[in-house]
Please model this.
Amino acid sequence: MATTTCTRFTDEYQLYEELGKGAFSVVRRCVKLSTGQEYAAKIINTKKLSARDHQKLEREARICRLLKHPNIVRLHDSISEEGFHYLLFDLVTGGELFEDIVAREYYSEADASHCIQQILEAVLHCHQMGVVHRDLKPENLLLASKCKNAAVKLADFGLAIEVQGDQQAWFGFAGTPGYLSPEVLRKEAYGKPVDIWACGVILYILLVGYPPFWDEDQHKLYQQIKAGAYDFPSPEWDTVTPEAKNLINQMLTINPAKRITAQEALKHPWVCQRSTVASMMHRQETVECLKKFNARRKLKVCLGQFLQPCWFPEISQVRPLWAFSFFNYTSKVKKVNSQLSV
Model:
């Protein structure tokens, strides 16, 4: 069970190599001395945190303690000491889901169905526990190990919030631009449906290797999202089954009240009957596009080390999507923008 203790971290754990780094935290592999069990230790320098940041840290730890699911990175311990706070999570060693897909020899629509099923299982558990993730994106979809068919694990609850039932309220901007829902961009009350919208964006990418909404101009990107202006262009979508497109349409429904829920999505034929509904054809073009998509995501991270977000300057919870040229999007973007201007 995840608990907050005052025991000195170094008395119980041995730290090893760095796995990742943030503005106020670092993630390192660690081993519990009494058991030899490995964990990922998120080490937060609390001396650098504002009062508001302290509240966010407490919220993240509280939320992570609630969530116990095979498709969610689990919090095992929480240790608070003078100047530092340690969160001990599952050590997941399989890397990002999207990176694993491009390394596979075979990838089909049925594989995409299996991926989104696991993501939806994680989201359903969150929603049943009164948690909205608010930052579903490829970077937060990890694999438990490098073994074949390793479980997908949802990570990073730094922007997650707690809600009561189907509560809708204005919780502020939070997330990553390309995955934000229309209701968030319109500054309307929102809740659990924002996670389903992000799942729809992720599923679209899983099937063709590029996102449904894209523009180098942030304002135009948000116009596209608010209008729900996406399509299924030829030739890449010609080989995708109608059932897959139907599920995407239900996830990317502009009205959150009419958007499919996680529970309903898991009962969709394309998910629960994929052996007979989803195509088994190898999607080489998707893999090639996804390689480019991954490369540009990595470039975004590198740029993010030197730049600061400039669109909602008053908001610190919108995670930047740095402007970089996407491949072969020009004609699609022009088409969408011309439709929006009519």
Remarks:
- The first helix runs from residue 9 to 12.
- Strands lie at 4-5, 13-21, 25-32, 38-45, 75-81, 84-89, 131-132, 141-143, 152-154, 161-162.
- The chain has two domains: 10-90, 95-297.
